[in-house]
Amino acid sequence: LVGLPNAGKSTLLASVSAAKPKIADYPFTTLHPNLGVVKIGGKDFVLADIPGLIEGAHEGAGIGDRFLGHIERCVTLIHLVDGTAEDVVNQYKTIRGELDAYGHGLEERPEIVVLNKVDALDDKAVEKKRKALEKASKSTVLAASAATGKGVNDVLYAVLRALAEARQEEIDDAVPEDEKIWTPG
Q: I need a labelling partner for 69 at 20 to 30 A (CA). Which of 55, 78, 99, 154 fits?
């Protein structure tokens, strides 16, 4: 889970796992990465809640710089964007900029973009912000509320699909070309 402070990362982790991260309404509540095991659809995976990143984190601003290395271990990123923010596109671009500036492959990591806190918005506002994020991220944006659970299963199943794709790529990469099975088609 990546995002700006107060995007709802810890709330999401607490709502989908047995983890008990500190949750409060002030920036930098999460001071250390928190892990939780998520079980859904007969599968399970570990979800990591990384402390909020701010602009300049890759250069040491805030507390996020020392946690960017933890993100390198993540197969896919769930990028939470606070739906109650006025400029959700700027929030998205700030975090993408930090991940890109840090490098180490994070800029190429699969990403699931989620507009969070939709319970605090009317349907028209949700759709407007979701479409703006889709344009900025050039990907499908899911809408969810970690607090109420609305749309959370969609996010978790998207993670399962991303993990399955990554595992298939690992298998494909591990099989030597001369040992790959030919199939007609």
A: 154
| pLDDT band per the 50, 70, 90 thresholds, residue 95 | confident
Q: How much is the pTM?
A: 0.81
